[in-house]
Protein backbone atom coordinates (compact mmCIF):
# COMPACT_ATOMS: atom_id res chain seq x y z
CA UNK A 1 0.00 0.00 0.00
CA UNK A 2 1.17 3.51 -0.72
CA UNK A 3 2.00 5.79 2.18
CA UNK A 4 -0.51 8.27 0.77
CA UNK A 5 -3.44 5.83 0.74
CA UNK A 6 -6.39 7.30 2.63
CA UNK A 7 -8.32 5.33 5.23
CA UNK A 8 -10.53 5.89 8.29
CA UNK A 9 -7.52 5.32 10.54
CA UNK A 10 -5.49 8.02 8.79
CA UNK A 11 -8.38 10.47 9.03
CA UNK A 12 -8.69 9.80 12.75
CA UNK A 13 -5.04 10.38 13.62
CA UNK A 14 -5.68 14.10 14.25
CA UNK A 15 -1.95 14.68 13.81
CA UNK A 16 0.75 13.46 11.42
CA UNK A 17 2.03 9.97 12.16
CA UNK A 18 5.61 11.28 12.21
CA UNK A 19 7.44 14.56 12.41
CA UNK A 20 10.93 15.89 11.84
CA UNK A 21 12.45 18.51 14.14
CA UNK A 22 15.48 20.78 13.73
CA UNK A 23 15.85 19.75 10.10
CA UNK A 24 18.48 22.44 9.54
CA UNK A 25 20.64 21.19 12.41
CA UNK A 26 24.34 21.34 11.60
CA UNK A 27 25.51 18.10 13.23
CA UNK A 28 26.42 15.28 10.86
CA UNK A 29 24.00 12.98 12.67
CA UNK A 30 20.32 12.09 12.61
CA UNK A 31 18.46 11.14 15.78
CA UNK A 32 15.47 8.81 15.51
CA UNK A 33 12.84 7.96 18.15
CA UNK A 34 10.50 5.23 16.92
CA UNK A 35 8.68 4.73 20.24
CA UNK A 36 8.25 8.38 21.19
CA UNK A 37 4.47 8.48 21.69
CA UNK A 38 1.65 6.69 23.48
CA UNK A 39 -1.04 8.24 21.25
CA UNK A 40 -3.75 5.83 20.04
CA UNK A 41 -6.15 7.08 17.32
CA UNK A 42 -9.75 7.45 18.45
CA UNK A 43 -10.93 5.09 15.69
CA UNK A 44 -9.20 2.22 17.50
CA UNK A 45 -11.18 2.65 20.71
CA UNK A 46 -8.09 2.79 22.86
CA UNK A 47 -7.29 -0.75 21.66
CA UNK A 48 -9.41 -1.92 24.59
CA UNK A 49 -6.59 -1.10 27.01
CA UNK A 50 -6.85 -0.18 30.66
CA UNK A 51 -5.47 3.23 31.65
CA UNK A 52 -2.54 1.46 33.28
CA UNK A 53 -1.62 -0.36 30.09
CA UNK A 54 -2.13 2.69 27.87
CA UNK A 55 0.29 4.74 29.98
CA UNK A 56 2.82 1.99 30.58
CA UNK A 57 6.16 1.26 28.93
CA UNK A 58 4.29 -1.22 26.72
CA UNK A 59 2.77 1.73 24.85
CA UNK A 60 5.95 3.80 24.42
CA UNK A 61 9.57 4.17 25.49
CA UNK A 62 9.27 6.27 28.63
CA UNK A 63 11.68 9.21 28.59
CA UNK A 64 13.09 8.43 25.15
CA UNK A 65 11.56 11.42 23.37
CA UNK A 66 12.52 13.87 26.12
CA UNK A 67 16.08 12.58 26.00
CA UNK A 68 16.12 12.74 22.20
CA UNK A 69 14.96 16.37 22.26
CA UNK A 70 17.67 17.29 24.77
CA UNK A 71 20.30 15.62 22.59
CA UNK A 72 18.87 17.32 19.52
CA UNK A 73 19.59 20.66 21.14
CA UNK A 74 22.96 19.72 22.60
CA UNK A 75 24.27 18.29 19.32
CA UNK A 76 22.30 20.52 16.94
CA UNK A 77 21.10 17.40 15.14
CA UNK A 78 17.78 16.78 13.38
CA UNK A 79 15.31 14.37 14.97
CA UNK A 80 12.62 12.18 13.41
CA UNK A 81 9.98 10.79 15.77
CA UNK A 82 6.89 8.64 15.53
CA UNK A 83 3.73 10.23 16.94
CA UNK A 84 1.71 7.03 17.33
CA UNK A 85 1.98 4.34 20.00
CA UNK A 86 3.97 1.23 19.15
CA UNK A 87 0.89 -0.75 20.19
CA UNK A 88 -0.83 0.63 17.08
CA UNK A 89 2.23 -0.15 14.98
CA UNK A 90 5.86 -0.61 16.03
CA UNK A 91 7.85 1.48 13.55
CA UNK A 92 11.01 -0.45 14.42
CA UNK A 93 9.55 -3.58 12.84
CA UNK A 94 8.97 -4.46 9.17
CA UNK A 95 5.38 -5.04 8.01
CA UNK A 96 5.84 -8.81 7.91
CA UNK A 97 7.00 -9.05 11.55
CA UNK A 98 4.40 -10.70 13.83
CA UNK A 99 5.26 -8.30 16.67
CA UNK A 100 4.82 -5.18 14.53
CA UNK A 101 1.23 -5.13 15.86
CA UNK A 102 1.45 -7.05 19.14
CA UNK A 103 -1.57 -8.68 20.74
CA UNK A 104 0.34 -9.33 23.97
CA UNK A 105 3.09 -7.37 25.75
CA UNK A 106 5.11 -8.54 28.72
CA UNK A 107 2.30 -7.65 31.15
CA UNK A 108 -0.76 -6.73 29.12
CA UNK A 109 -3.15 -8.20 26.57
CA UNK A 110 -3.96 -5.77 23.74
CA UNK A 111 -7.55 -6.67 22.78
CA UNK A 112 -7.70 -4.25 19.85
CA UNK A 113 -4.85 -6.05 18.12
CA UNK A 114 -6.37 -9.53 18.30
CA UNK A 115 -7.64 -11.28 15.18
CA UNK A 116 -7.00 -8.39 12.80
CA UNK A 117 -7.94 -8.87 9.17
CA UNK A 118 -5.37 -8.41 6.41
CA UNK A 119 -7.03 -5.11 5.50
CA UNK A 120 -6.85 -3.85 9.09
CA UNK A 121 -3.15 -4.68 9.31
CA UNK A 122 -2.53 -3.09 5.91
CA UNK A 123 -4.24 0.12 7.05
CA UNK A 124 -1.86 0.44 9.98
CA UNK A 125 1.15 -0.23 7.79
CA UNK A 126 -0.07 2.40 5.33
CA UNK A 127 -1.01 5.00 7.91
CA UNK A 128 1.77 4.63 10.48
CA UNK A 129 4.76 2.65 9.17
CA UNK A 130 5.09 4.22 5.72
CA UNK A 131 4.67 7.87 6.80
CA UNK A 132 7.33 7.41 9.49
CA UNK A 133 9.86 5.70 7.26
CA UNK A 134 9.13 8.01 4.32
CA UNK A 135 9.83 11.00 6.56
CA UNK A 136 13.04 9.37 7.73
CA UNK A 137 14.11 8.79 4.11
CA UNK A 138 13.26 12.37 3.15
CA UNK A 139 15.20 13.77 6.09
CA UNK A 140 18.24 11.63 5.25
CA UNK A 141 18.05 12.61 1.58
CA UNK A 142 18.02 16.29 2.53
CA UNK A 143 21.18 16.11 4.64
CA UNK A 144 24.15 17.87 3.03
CA UNK A 145 26.45 14.94 3.89
CA UNK A 146 25.89 11.34 5.08
CA UNK A 147 25.06 11.45 8.81
CA UNK A 148 25.64 9.01 11.64
CA UNK A 149 22.25 7.37 12.34
CA UNK A 150 21.38 7.21 16.05
CA UNK A 151 18.14 5.58 17.27
CA UNK A 152 16.98 6.30 20.81
CA UNK A 153 15.10 3.88 23.09
CA UNK A 154 14.47 3.08 26.74
CA UNK A 155 13.88 -0.16 28.63
CA UNK A 156 12.39 -1.25 31.95
CA UNK A 157 14.48 -1.96 35.08
CA UNK A 158 12.72 -5.32 35.51
CA UNK A 159 11.61 -7.65 32.71
CA UNK A 160 9.82 -10.94 33.28
CA UNK A 161 10.86 -10.85 36.92
CA UNK A 162 14.54 -10.31 36.19
CA UNK A 163 16.30 -7.16 37.40
CA UNK A 164 18.42 -5.44 34.78
CA UNK A 165 21.63 -3.97 36.14
CA UNK A 166 22.69 -2.40 32.84
CA UNK A 167 21.94 1.32 32.58
CA UNK A 168 23.09 2.08 29.05
CA UNK A 169 22.78 -0.46 26.25
CA UNK A 170 24.61 0.05 22.97
CA UNK A 171 23.23 -2.08 20.13
CA UNK A 172 24.36 -2.75 16.59
CA UNK A 173 23.59 -4.92 13.59
CA UNK A 174 26.34 -6.01 11.17
CA UNK A 175 28.07 -2.61 11.26
CA UNK A 176 29.53 -2.08 14.75
CA UNK A 177 31.63 1.03 14.05
CA UNK A 178 29.41 3.48 15.91
CA UNK A 179 28.62 1.02 18.70
CA UNK A 180 32.28 0.28 19.42
CA UNK A 181 33.19 3.96 19.29
CA UNK A 182 30.37 4.84 21.67
CA UNK A 183 31.27 1.98 24.01
CA UNK A 184 34.83 3.29 24.26
CA UNK A 185 33.56 6.82 24.90
CA UNK A 186 31.28 5.55 27.69
CA UNK A 187 34.02 3.89 29.74
CA UNK A 188 34.48 6.88 32.05
CA UNK A 189 30.80 7.86 32.21
CA UNK A 190 30.04 6.05 35.47
CA UNK A 191 27.17 4.25 33.74
CA UNK A 192 26.83 0.47 33.77
CA UNK A 193 27.24 0.07 30.02
CA UNK A 194 26.99 -3.07 27.91
CA UNK A 195 27.09 -3.98 24.24
CA UNK A 196 23.93 -5.54 22.79
CA UNK A 197 22.01 -5.48 26.06
CA UNK A 198 19.25 -5.70 27.10
CA UNK A 199 18.43 -6.66 23.50
CA UNK A 200 20.40 -7.63 20.42
CA UNK A 201 19.95 -8.18 16.70
CA UNK A 202 18.52 -11.64 17.40
CA UNK A 203 15.50 -9.96 19.06
CA UNK A 204 14.56 -8.26 15.81
CA UNK A 205 15.13 -4.74 17.12
CA UNK A 206 17.41 -3.35 14.40
CA UNK A 207 14.94 -2.76 11.57
CA UNK A 208 15.53 1.00 11.41
CA UNK A 209 19.30 0.51 11.51
CA UNK A 210 19.07 -1.97 8.63
CA UNK A 211 16.59 -0.04 6.53
CA UNK A 212 18.23 3.37 6.76
CA UNK A 213 21.75 2.75 8.05
CA UNK A 214 23.09 -0.44 6.52
CA UNK A 215 21.28 0.10 3.21
CA UNK A 216 22.97 3.49 2.82
CA UNK A 217 26.34 2.54 4.27
CA UNK A 218 25.86 4.94 7.19
CA UNK A 219 27.52 4.43 10.55
CA UNK A 220 24.63 3.60 12.87
CA UNK A 221 23.86 2.69 16.47
CA UNK A 222 20.85 1.97 18.67
CA UNK A 223 20.90 3.37 22.21
CA UNK A 224 18.86 1.88 25.07
CA UNK A 225 18.65 3.78 28.38
CA UNK A 226 17.04 2.27 31.47
CA UNK A 227 13.85 4.23 31.89
CA UNK A 228 14.10 4.86 35.64
CA UNK A 229 17.09 7.07 34.81
CA UNK A 230 15.10 9.30 32.44
CA UNK A 231 11.58 9.38 33.86
CA UNK A 232 12.02 12.87 35.37
CA UNK A 233 13.31 16.15 33.88
CA UNK A 234 16.31 15.98 36.21
CA UNK A 235 17.14 12.47 35.04
CA UNK A 236 16.75 13.40 31.39
CA UNK A 237 19.02 16.41 31.83
CA UNK A 238 21.68 14.34 33.58
CA UNK A 239 21.62 11.59 30.96
CA UNK A 240 21.74 14.08 28.10
CA UNK A 241 24.75 15.69 29.73
CA UNK A 242 26.50 12.32 29.80
CA UNK A 243 25.50 11.15 26.33
CA UNK A 244 25.99 14.35 24.33
CA UNK A 245 29.81 14.45 24.56
CA UNK A 246 30.01 10.71 23.90
CA UNK A 247 27.90 11.05 20.77
CA UNK A 248 29.91 14.07 19.69
CA UNK A 249 32.98 11.81 19.74
CA UNK A 250 31.17 9.23 17.61
CA UNK A 251 30.16 11.87 15.09
CA UNK A 252 33.66 13.36 15.02
CA UNK A 253 35.26 9.99 14.37
CA UNK A 254 32.74 8.47 11.96
CA UNK A 255 31.14 11.27 9.95
CA UNK A 256 32.80 11.47 6.51
CA UNK A 257 35.89 13.66 6.55
CA UNK A 258 34.47 15.93 3.87
CA UNK A 259 31.46 16.53 6.12
CA UNK A 260 33.50 17.82 9.05
CA UNK A 261 33.44 21.59 9.58
Could you name the key traits of this structure?
alpha/beta; Aminopeptidase; 7 helices; two-stranded antiparallel ribbon; disordered N terminus; 261 residues; 7-stranded mixed sheet
Number of domains: 1
CATH class: Alpha Beta
What is the CATH homologous superfamily assignment? Zn-dependent exopeptidases
Largest sheet: 7 strands, mixed
| CATH topology descriptor | Aminopeptidase
Radius of gyration computed on alpha carbons: 18 Å
Span between N and C termini?
Answer: 41 Å
Structural class: alpha/beta
Strand order of the largest sheet: 1-3-2-4-9-7-8
State the helix count. Answer: 7
Task: Return the string of H and E elements.
Answer: HEEHHEHEEEEHEHEH
Large-scale geometry: globular
Query: What CATH architecture would you give?
Result: 3-Layer(aba) Sandwich
Q: Strand percentage, roughly?
A: 5-15%
InterPro entries: N-FG_amidohydro, UCP029730
Keywords: Hydrolase
Pfam family, one: FGase
Protein name: N-formylglutamate amidohydrolase
Architecture overview:
- Keywords: Hydrolase.
- This protein has 261 residues and is of the alpha/beta class.
- The chain has a single domain (8-256), classed as 3-Layer(aba) Sandwich (Aminopeptidase).
- 32% of the residues lie in helices and 15% in strands.
- The protein is built from seven helices and nine strands.
- Strand 7 (168-171), helix 5 (177-185) and strand 8 form a beta-alpha-beta unit.
- The model is unreliable at 1-7 (pLDDT under 50).
Amino acid sequence: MSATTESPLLHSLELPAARALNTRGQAHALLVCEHASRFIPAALGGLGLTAEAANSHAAWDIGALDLSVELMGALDAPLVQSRVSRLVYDCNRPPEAPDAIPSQSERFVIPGNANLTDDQRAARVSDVYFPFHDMLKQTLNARPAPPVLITMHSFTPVYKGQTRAVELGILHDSDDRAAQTLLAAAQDSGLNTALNEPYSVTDGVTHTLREHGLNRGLANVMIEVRNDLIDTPTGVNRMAGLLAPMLAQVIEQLAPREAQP
